[in-house]
Each structure stands twice: as C-alpha cells, then as structure tokens.
Design goal:
Helix content is about 40%, strand content about 20%. It contains eight helices and twelve strands. About 30% of the residues are buried.
Length: about 230
C-alpha cells in the first residue's frame, strides 16, 4: 500500500468526498480542505506529496492558491492537479503557466483522476536523476536532481513544465520536435493539451532565459529545437 499524502481542496462536499473515497481506496493518505484559505494553511503545515485543487473556490480562488504555493520555497515543489469546471483553453493555459502538473475538467471520471495521480507520482520517481546527470550547453546549465537552471551561473526560476521542456530540448540539441512530442515527453501521451498552450510555455521560457533564449529556435510548420 502506498503512503503518499494528498491534499484535496474543493468547496463542494460531494466532490470532496468522492475524491477522498477513491484516492483513499488506492492507499493514499487524504487531507481535505473546503476553501482556499484552509488549503493554504494545511499545505504549509503538512507539506503533502500532491494537491488536487479546485479553481472555483470562495475567497481565495484556486489560481491564487496555486500562485501562492508556487511562490513559497516550502511548497513550490508540491505537484498540483487542477480539478475544475473551468475548461476553457485560457483557463488551462493559466493553470499550466502557474506550474500545475495536470488539469482535469468536471464532470470527471474517478478512474481517470486516479490514473492521472498515479502518473504524476510515477513521473516524479522516474525523473529523480543523479547529480552526475547535469547538462550543459551554451551558457545554460541544468541540474535535474536539484530542479535547477543556471544561465551564466545565475539561477533562473522556471515552472515544472518550462523546466521539463528545456531539459528535454537540451538533451537533444539540433533535433526538431513537434508540440505533441514535447508534451508526450514532459507530461505523457494521455495528457490533453493544445498547440497554443505549448507556445505559451515556450514564450514564458524564452522570457525567463533572457539572451540565452536565442538558442531555442522555432521551426515553422514543425515545432521547436535547441541549437547545437
């Protein structure tokens, strides 16, 4: 039986109980919160292994909860799976930009939710590299084990997805990848995403890399590559 601790934040009691019941059946330890304020308090006190977060919350909404968690060194590495009725492309893009691991829209299948949670934990285990796996190219250095990026030896703060994209491209300089290939590599082939959201991630990544962003090239009609 697994021992991972999951915080579920949702103001609908029936949804909260549904998620709690199905995840606890899988052996996860479940913490529950019915508001953004309560979710933040529990997250900071308990440091869960994953957070299932509704966006439409009273008071502090889910996006603001995610923003605060990702801006706090104590909680920024906690994976977030957003679970919400807000399924517009703009909402999905905003969630991904904030560093969410996944985005599931209501109504949802509990089997899909459990599978997505398992996938997040599986990726985190697979992506726990050794210190020797440091990658350097041009003025960019990536320490996967530390989840750290340096440009000219100065740290750059990236979201989970931005880091994953850069790490993927740096490992294969000169290769051109489609948007779907990039998503499959970073999040898995069962992850719903649009071309637009990938482009938004690249825009954010380039902005944070500054002058080093010139090494990420757009190949029209295909996708992206990192210069050799």
């Amino acid at each position: 039986m697994t021992k991972e601790k999951i915080l579920v934040v949702d103001d609908e009691e029936d949804i909260l109980e549904l998620v709690r019941y199905n995840l606890s059946r899988e052996g996860y330890k479940i913490l529950c919160a019915s508001s953004g304020e309560e979710g933040l308090k529990i997250a900071r006190a308990e440091i869960p292994d994953l957070i299932v977060l509704d966006l439409m919350l009273p008071g502090v909404d889910g996006l603001d909860v995610a923003r605060r968690l990702k801006g706090d060194d104590a909680t920024r590495k906690i994976p977030i799976v957003m679970l919400t009725a807000k399924g517009e492309e703009s909402d999905i893009i905003t969630g991904l930009e904030l560093g969410a691991e996944d985005y599931i829209t209501k109504p949802f299948s509990t089997k899909v939710l459990v599978a997505r949670v398992r996938a997040v934990f599986r990726r985190n285990i697979q992506d726990a590299p050794e210190e020797k796996d440091v990658h350097k190219i041009h003025e960019i250095t990536i320490h996967p084990g530390r989840h750290e990026v340096l440009v000219n030896e100065k740290p750059v703060q990236l979201t989970f997805t931005e880091f994953g994209i850069l790490d993927f491209l740096v490992k294969r300089p000169g290769w051109v990848f489609t948007r779907n290939q990039i998503v499959d590599a970073v999040r898995g082939d069962d992850y719903f995403v649009t071309d637009r959201s990938v482009d938004v991630q690249i825009v954010g990544l380039r902005k944070k890399l500054g002058k080093a962003s010139r090494h990420i090239e757009t190949v029209r009609g295909v996708g992206y590559r990192l210069k050799e």
